[in-house]
Automatic annotation (TrEMBL):
Similarity comment text for this entry: Belongs to the SurE nucleotidase family.
Name of the molecule in the record: 5'/3'-nucleotidase sure
SUPFAM superfamilies, sorted: SurE-like
Leader peptide range in chain numbering: 1-19
């Protein structure tokens, strides 16, 4: 089962999949190397792609939903791509399919869905939202809630749009103008891996008749450190789960400064496996090697019944009456 996704990806590359209507966003800005390389890779595969990214970097926003209330303020768009005073929403002068919004990643995703997509896709449905690839990994439940890249994806899933969040350990924040154009450029490697997974997901599916993913379900994909400076250039896809080796923060006092700082800790609570397929390895463990972790998530946060029932029974004396003592 762990190699099935890589097999599907290889099969998809050998077949011609129907073009998808895709909204592409991220949290590192509309001008990051990763999002532009992924845009080119998806377009090269024949998909109809609307890129709508934040005007400036919005890392760590999670699912925060903030729409613009001002036009572009100083210092302007990320990497100098938008002048101060420009409208809160605009497009690339050379490619009208590339847009920006002065808002958070989740807001970009839904602005794209509600305001731009009906005209852009000529009233056809949106088949998929792709978010990322993020500049840095987002492994485990703690970063799932923290990441703006994943936040855009799970916000779109909540609106009924199949979504994939991609995060890459190659975390350098860089402009798309620094892309070497070589296949070995980490941004191009990340873009091609993202496009390959989209191809595998869409293989054999007629989106006019069925969804790419079940309602309320998305994918979180974590790419390892890869590229020409490492021994990893083609990390295979591996099915994973979010729990298992996942980290969160603890706070300590820096003895040299006296200020609080955070350190990583791997707590048992964060890695308790209540849902999913227990035999799958944790995405944190898998993406630490030359493998790409693919986790399936649901936005139903309710605890499983066997875990919830004892708590519910304990509370029955108060929740079972309309009068609280």
């Amino acid at each position: 089962m762990l190699n099935r996704l890589s097999q599907l990806a290889a099969l998809a590359l050998a077949t011609s999949a129907a073009a998808l209507n895709i909204i592409l966003t991220n949290d590192d800005s509309w001008a990051s190397a990763n999002i532009r390389a992924t845009y080119e890779a998806l377009k090269a595969d024949g998909h109809n792609v609307l890129l709508i990214g934040p005007a400036v970097q919005q890392s760590g926003k999670g699912g925060t939903f903030v729409l613009p209330t001002t036009n572009i303020t100083a210092p302007g768009g990320e990497f100098g791509t938008i002048p101060v005073g420009a409208p809160y929403y605009g497009q690339d002068l050379n490619d009208s399919s590339i847009r920006y919004l002065n808002g958070t990643p989740a807001a970009c995703a839904i602005y794209g869905l509600d305001i731009i997509a009906p005209t852009f896709f000529k009233n056809q449905s949106v088949d998929l939202l792709v978010s990322g690839p993020n500049e840095g990994q987002n492994n485990g439940p703690f970063l799932y809630a923290l990441s703006g890249t994943i936040g855009a994806a799970y916000t779109a899933v909540g609106r009924g749009i199949p979504s994939i969040a991609f995060s890459a350990q190659n975390g350098t924040h860089r402009s798309y103008t620094t892309n070497t154009g070589l296949p070995s450029d980490p941004a191009n490697l990340a873009g091609r891996l993202a496009a390959n997974l989209v191809a595998a997901l869409a293989n054999g599916i007629d989106t006019s008749k069925e969804r790419l993913l079940p309602l309320g379900v998305g994918l979180s994909v974590n790419l390892p450190l890869f590229g020409p400076t490492s021994n990893c250039t083609e990390p295979p896809f591996t099915l994973t789960r979010m729990t298992g080796g996942a980290v969160t923060n603890k706070v300590v006092i820096d003895p040299s400064t006296g200020f609080p700082i955070y350190q990583n800790v791997i707590p048992k609570a964060l890695n308790t496996a209540y849902n999913g397929v227990p035999i799958l390895p944790g995405e944190s463990i898998v993406s630490a090697t030359c493998r790409t972790a693919v986790s399936v998530f649901s936005i139903d946060y309710d605890a499983p019944s066997k875990v919830a029932e004892p708590v519910q029974l304990q509370l029955l004396p108060v929740v079972g009456t309309s009068k609280l003592a």
